[in-house]
Design brief:
This protein has two domains: about 1-70, Nucleotidyltransferase, domain 5; about 75-125. Helix content is about 25%, strand content about 40%. It has two helices and nine strands, in the order E-E-E-E-E-H-E-E-H-E-E. The strands form three sheets. A four-stranded mixed beta sheet has the order 3-2-1-6, with helices on one face. The protein has a three-stranded antiparallel beta sheet with strand order 7-9-8, covered by helices on one side. The chain has a two-stranded antiparallel sheet with strand order 4-5. It starts with a strand and ends with a strand.
């Protein structure tokens, strides 16, 4: 089952899908001023709206894919196996191409090392040019 949560300036939408079937969906309006330009200005109020939406739809809060409309970037977290340091840059580039299906000239890839305990965990930020 996949659960998506889209947070926009005026509403939050939830969709639960199993296979090719919609299992549950719902939305809730947001008060003005809670979110502006993709930034959540009042996280407690937005969190309360999200909790209410999950309760009303009876969808579990597990493995949720979240998007926030209005942000000029997205994040991807990639786990790479241990490798020689000179191979890391090429591995990031190859993994980013699989994750972000846009030509490199349309984006910036900004890797950030999160941890080295189990290889390399990298976050890639995509930003339109």
């Amino acid at each position: 089952m996949y659960i998506t949560l889209n947070i926009a300036t005026t509403s939050i939408r939830l969709l639960s899908v199993s296979g090719r079937r919609v299992k549950e969906w719902g939305s809730t309006p947001l008060e003005a001023g809670l979110i502006r330009d993709g930034l959540i200005l009042q996280p407690k109020a937005v969190g309360a709206a999200i909790d209410s939406l999950f309760k009303s739809t009876k969808v579990p809060k597990e493995q949720v894919i979240i998007s926030v409309s209005g942000l000029p970037f997205t994040h991807r977290i990639l786990n790479l196996p241990r490798m020689k340091p000179e191979l890391v840059e090429e591995a990031i580039e190859l993994a980013a191409r699989r994750e972000i299906p846009l030509p490199p000239r349309w984006s910036w890839i900004l890797p950030t090392r999160l941890t080295a305990s189990a290889g390399f965990a990298l976050t890639h930020t995509f930003k339109e040019a």
